[in-house]
Design brief:
164 residues, mainly alpha, 2 domains, elongated, DUF2892 domain-containing protein
Amino acid sequence: MEAPTTTGRITQRHRHATEQIRRELEYRLTYFAEHPDRIDDRLAELDSEWDIERSLMANASTLALVGTALALLGRRRYLLLSVLVSAFLLQHAVQGWCPPLPLLRRLGVRAQYEIELERYALKVLRGDFDKAKDERKKPEATLDLLGGRSAAHEERGAGKARRS
């Protein structure tokens, strides 16, 4: 059995919710194109937004803990809750889907790549990548621009540290 790709497994099964999330993104980008002074605040909000995987794990672990605690208090039937939630998590890991996903999608919980899409679209609106036009043929400059460190940059830093 072949598992769906990470980026496609959530949006493929929930097209209506995905379209709604996409429309909301377009609305936000239109707003921030008109109000570029508010982009930094939105980027800060995105840093704390939970993606669907994190939301699913947090909810599942909460339900599993509650089920286990109630079972330990003598209500054995609640052990079934822990087993059921664990089965859903396994199903999600293998198939990329589980019963709570449609609800989370309808509530507007986004996949990580959807959050990152908004983040980079906002950075484009802010002009972060304008600097890359002159430097686009230099991988080191491109990685630095994106917040990563190039291997050459790291080696130079390590060489300086060894010489010190």
